């Protein structure tokens, strides 16, 4: 790995604050922000549109291999040239993404795209398995978590802002199902890497969490080199 290229891996369950924080930290550091959940969501959206069953592993793998997924610097997500940023935010796409992401062939296809994205740039990459599987050698690994009730409230608020009706209880139910699936799947489950810094974001503002993450970055990286 090129000495100067830094990888900040941010993992954690849904609603822990990954996207908000990964975006802020990337802007602060001047790194590229990569949302790997958006990639799984894009594959899931395509599968839903084509009515591919989540049990059809071969077709899902092929879709993941053939999907042309682009993440723009402005934070838009393109699937085969179409802007799907809004469409992939739907709750049904989130649930499908969790199912589709359990398919080993889908993960293989996206893993190589994710590694390729960081070949030339320093990145802040968020997901479930970034510190454990995609970049086990990442210099900075953060695991964000929060109280399940707070995570459900945050997710419900997000959905409401998008104009989708969301009562906290049903969001909490869907989220805990999704987390259980993400944590217990055989391939690259959601897990805190042993060398990741755990930050509990319950009751903290985005500014406070950002400060904590930047402290970890400063402690682990100095002058573009890994701190000894
Ligand atoms: O971060 P998100 O909620 O947008 O992710 C949607 C789903 O995609 C999540 O439930 C599990 C899956 N995912 C994954 O398996 N690995 C990643 N690195 C990112 C997301």
Features:
globular; five-stranded parallel β-sheet; alpha/beta; three-stranded antiparallel β-sheet; binds 2'-deoxycytidine-5'-monophosphate
Summarize the structure.
By secondary structure, the chain is of the alpha/beta class.
Largest sheet: 5 strands, parallel
Order of helices and strands: EHEHHEEEHHEHEHHEHEE
End-to-end gap = 17 Å
As for the CATH topology, it is Rossmann fold
- Tally of contiguous helical segments: 9
Gross CATH architecture: 3-Layer(aba) Sandwich
CATH superfamily: P-loop containing nucleotide triphosphate hydrolases
Number of domains: 1
The helix-and-strand class reads alpha/beta
Strand content: 15-25%
Main-sheet strand order equals 2-6-1-7-8
What's the number of extended β-strand segments?
Answer: 10
Bound molecules: 2'-deoxycytidine-5'-monophosphate
Helix amount: 40-55%
Oligomer: single chain
What shape does the CA trace take?
Answer: globular
**Radius of gyration based on Cα positions:** 17 Å
CATH class: Alpha Beta
Look at the structure and give the mean pLDDT.
94
